[in-house]
Amino acid sequence: MAKKSTGATPAARALTSAGVPHTLHEYDHDPRAESYGMEAATALGLDPARVFKTLMASVDRLPGTGRPGLVVAVVPVSGQLDLKALARAVGAGKAQLADPGAAERATGYVVGGISPIGQKRQHPTVVDASALDHPTVFVSGGRRGLDLEIAPADLVGVTGATTAPVGRP
To answer: Model confidence at 1, in pLDDT bands (50, 70, 90)?
Structure first.
């Protein structure tokens, strides 16, 4: 069941500070949920194609540096991340899902609540191109049980992301 949010997270503060329109959607998180993203879609009564999960991946070459590092991928919860497509999108040779502990340290968020917005350090970000098919999309608000509704163009702008087909059904 959806409820109005009262707690500000780094993601919500970053959007407010940047003047980016958004809506917070809070729901009761079930710690037994197998998929945080599908849990959000179900709890908020949304088409899973509009709800996006934030995944961290390690790549062998970061754009501009040529060194290994982390990148952010934002893909629909109804599908999976295509690691080869993500590597191509950032000019890397290879990508793999990041260690959860490394993702938490790099973002300042816990797994299941990692937002693409307001991370401790900005990382190269790729938003799946399907986000542009919707007037608004939902991404983690920075904690389990909180999603942000935002226009895809604003998501891309505030994260400095590129868009590419990096999700697969």
So the answer is: very low
